[in-house]
Amino acid sequence: MALLLNGMGVSRGIAIGPVYILHRNQHEIVEQKIDKKNIAKEVKRFKTAHRTAKKQLQKIGKDIPSESPDDISTFIETHLLMLDDTMMSSSPIEIIKQNQCNAEWALKLQTDAIVKVFQSMDDPYIATRQDDVKHVFNHIMEALVTGGKSQSVDASEKWKDRIVIADDLTPADTMIMQHAGVAGFVTEMGGPLSHTAILARSLNIPAIVGLSDARLYLNRGESLVIDGSSGLVLAEPDDLSIDHFHKRQRAMRRKTKELRKLNDAKSRAKSGENITLLANIEVEDDLKHLRKINAAGVGLYRTEFLYLQENKIPNEEEHYKTYVRVIRALRGAPLTIRTVDLGADKEIDAVTLGPLAHNPAMGLRGIRLCLHDPALIVPQLRAILRASAKGPIKIMFPMLTTVSELLQAKQLLETTKEALRSKGIKFDEKIPVGGMIEVPAAAISASHFAEHLDFLSIGTNDLIQYTLAIDRIDDQVNYLYDPLNPAVLSLIKMIIDAGNKHKIPVTMCGEMAGNPSYTRVLLGLGLREFSMPPNSILEIKNVLRQTRLSAVRRPALGFLHYSEKTKQTTMLDKINS
Ligand code: PEP
Ligand code: MG
Asked: What is the pLDDT of residue 343?
């Protein structure tokens, strides 16, 4: 009989195939007391296992094929660094000596302590780093238990066309499985920010995570369908369902293949107007996708990831080197660098807002935080300016609420320019300065902001959050999320009109810009520049190439009058037909 389960879909695509249950790392770890005279022997056993784990990881690192994404080698390097850290190399030895216990127990005690620290962190990105600690623990434990004779996943096992069900997968496991042609995977642990999820997306493997007890419900060899977008897992599907999913799978493949033909096509509406399609990037790795799809440049570089990755404030040189690498990779295409937007859900240890911030999304974040503590932004401004001598860079300030904030930020920029000038350091004297309009107050007075700026950029993620009063990370109010709400669309239109009035470009860089359902509405409201995740660009290009701008103007304005879902759906179907 068919069984329907639901997990968290983290990597798009449908996989159909037999189940492969991966049982491992399930050694029962018990405490054993070790005689004083045998402690040295136990320490030696730990050191040997540690060495073996290191050699195995180094070998995996060397065997990574050159065409694999950089993510993979980064993961392996991170694990090697953790393995070498005293917390994993010498602390367990201290525990063996102090507690007079076996190496396995000492390693477990030490790992549990580290994982506990990671779990207590509020930042979801940092919290998921506990996965790395567990992976490193597994590598050493495997070597301890098996005397170094086993690898985490045997490369010779037959993964081809199978859907692997596991507690969790290490990056090395995932890579080995992808090379062997795995169809997809489901893990019991992990979230959308876990390494497994990140890697699955970059390797294009349909994947579902966080399906607790998946290995209890599913059986080896039974047939399975997984949908990596919705998180659906269907075991023992009937012929009709298999047929349905095969059709969907073929349709998705055809669509991706078709879209690839647009790589070199102009982003031009059917009626002839050029539309600018830019990419949003968070980390340097995202640039690889850009080259393939010919984006016109980067419309939003979220630089806070530089702070989050290292959990510290980068110094000027670190900023500078990164920006120069990015601008070189863009080969002449413009790069819009958003100054750091920390606060709310993006915090680092050095900048925590503490218990006084009852509502951090409305607290000291973005430009407010930087004006409060200029040491956060000045090294970044210096680095951006210096990098602007190497290629076309624009500066963008986030979370502006009042014009006076903008003027203070510009003053800070001027002072920084003056300091560089006095030292004879080169930079682009005419570097364009833009502002993110993502607070309703700024949207309503967008015209005043436009007087002082070279471009405006609409941040719909926050604009929707603040306009509809829905916390963007609270899943209990997700049902209210509605980019087509007339209040939101009216604000978007006000911003576009303000840009037109002052003859400055207006870009949209929130998620709405990358959703093909809204492209025609936005074109109809007058938007001509879109910035989005790189893998949405071809889909949006496809829509706009089939759109006559004069035909969508009037229907788009119609959306300003209706908030009823049924009415919106009918109108959306009509404008998109
Ligand atoms: C936005 O708010 O729409 C935006 C692009 O910024 P972020 O998602 O980084 O807050
Ligand atoms: Mg924002």
From this structure: 80
417 and 283 in a common domain: yes
Total domains, the chain? 3
Using CA atoms, how far residue 278 sits from 258, 310, 486, 540, in Å, is 21, 27, 26, 11
Ligand nearest to the CA of 338: 1
Rounded CA-CA distance 231/208 in Å is 6
- Measured between alpha carbons, how far is 517 from 186 in angstroms, rounded to an integer? 29
Identity of residue 426 = K
Is residue 256 domain-resident?
no
Please check whether residue 248 lies inside any domain of the structure: no
For residue 228, give the nearest of 265, 200, 270, 267 by alpha carbon: 200
In angstroms, the CA 466 to CA 488 distance is 10
Note whether 338 and 372 are same-domain residues.
yes
Q: Please write the tens of the pLDDT for every residue from 523-576.
A: 999 999 999 888 789 999 999 999 999 999 999 999 999 889 899 999 999 999
Q: What is the CATH number of the domain that holds 220?
A: 3.50.30.10
pLDDT digits (tens, 9 = 90+) for 408-467: 999 999 999 999 999 999 999 999 999 999 999 999 999 999 999 999 999 998 999 999
Q: Give phi and psi for 346, each to the nearest 5.
A: -120, 95
Indicate whether 140 and 169 sit together in one domain.
Answer: no
CA–CA separation, 178 and 182 (whole Å): 5
* Closest atom of ligand 1 to CA, residue 512: 3
User: How many other C-beta atoms are found inside a 10 Å radius of the C-beta of residue 17?
Assistant: 18
Q: Contact at 8 Å (CB) between 219 and 19? A: yes
Residue 106 and residue 97 in contact, taking contact as beta carbons nearer than 8 Å: no
For the chain, the first-to-last Cα distance in angstroms comes to 39
Is the domain of 412 the same as that of 269?
yes
Measured from the CA of 459, which atom of ligand 1 is nearest?
Answer: 3
155 pLDDT higher than 60: no
Q: Which domain holds residue 83?
A: 36-146
DSSP per-residue codes, 246-289 = HHHHHHHHHHHHHHHTTTTS--B-TTS-B-EEEEEESSGGGHHH
Q: Other CB atoms closer than 10 Å to residue 190's CB: what's the count?
A: 24
Q: Which of 146, 140, 151, 134 is nearest to 49 (CA)?
A: 140
Alpha carbon nearest to ligand 1 atom 1, residue: 459
Please say which residue of 239, 271, 287 terminates a domain. Answer: 239
Of the pLDDT bands very low, low, confident and very high (cuts 50, 70, 90), residue 72 is low
- Which of 436, 462, 471, 522 to mutate to test ligand 1, by most ligand atoms within 8 A of the CB atom? 462
